[in-house]
Amino acid sequence: MQDVKRGFMPRFVLNRKCLSVSGACPILVKLFLGKMNMKLRYLFAMLCACPMLAQAEIYKSVDGNGHVTYSSAPIKGGRKLFLEPLPTLVPSGKAHASEQFPTVTNETQKARDDTRRKILQDELNAEVKLLEGAQQNLKGADSNPEVFKGGDGRTYRDATAYEEKIKPLNDQVVLHKQNIEALKTELSRLPK
Description:
There is one protein chain. The chain has helices spanning about 1-5, 20-25, 25-35, 40-50, 95-100, 105-145, 160-190, and strands at about 10-15, 15-20, 60, 70, 80, 145-150, 155. The protein is an alpha+beta fold. The chain folds into three domains: about 1-50, no CATH class; about 55-85, no CATH class; about 105-190. A three-stranded antiparallel β-sheet has the order 4-3-5, with no helix packed on it. Strands 1-2 form a two-stranded antiparallel sheet.
């Protein structure tokens, strides 16, 4: 960290050895500083494009507790893994996914949209009826407040019992209103 603060070149750690930029990649330094001729630059670009050179050895170790450790350096009690490279190109004999995907005719899609519209409209009509019923239940509960007789013989409203009775009815009204709005939104998204 002190080297970076003083303006020195950053260092890289490779296999527990600290290397400077020029020590880690002398070819890159020469390439970017322009000390290589053009043929070597092309050769370097070709080598970088070759994925086979980018492979690393991987070692796997499992300790007594079952913990798995992977490393790029050999581990005591570990074994080297041999991994096959992943294919990067689609084999020429196979068709692309878009060619295999089924197509739908305009008439079929219009029939599907009409069916969906009818289902959504039926659900909307049912929700409107349920909303009307929930509003009537709320109005009925609101007009019949919970009361109790006090110690002095007078009648008082029981606010706690009233809230317990009204809250689920209010929740039902709100739920049906939200369902109606959601159904209207879905209907508006369908093509006309």
